[in-house]
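Q: What would this chain look like folded?
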Amino acid sequence: MEVTNTIGRRKTAVARIYMQKGSGQITINKRDYKDYFPLGTLQYVVTQPLQIAEVEGQYDIKVNLDGGGMTGQAEALRLAISRALVELYPDLRPTLKSKGLLKRDPRMVERKKPGQPKARKRFQFSKR
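A: My prediction, written as structure tokens:
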């Protein structure tokens, strides 16, 4: 049985996946993906590439997720699954690319500057 191994990143989240033929089970850090992502929108984000490729329920996916928040992790996982599907089915590349699923979102948190409470927020100005 051949295992496809890919990686996906978003903000500080990293998703490493191992995809192989199976019954459609998605396991994230030894938990079912529906337990790991209780929100329906995040569950949709995770399964989106599988639905577009019409291979839902055909592959078992084992995931190691690390870093970031819930949304970042879900989007990192979506990128990893999309890359694995392109490895298995190269003809899917234009379809997934047109939906924007193969692009690594480059937006990161801006660093905090010295003399300010946050990246762009300033301390309140006092005239006197």
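The CA atoms of residues 79 and 101 lie 6 Å apart.
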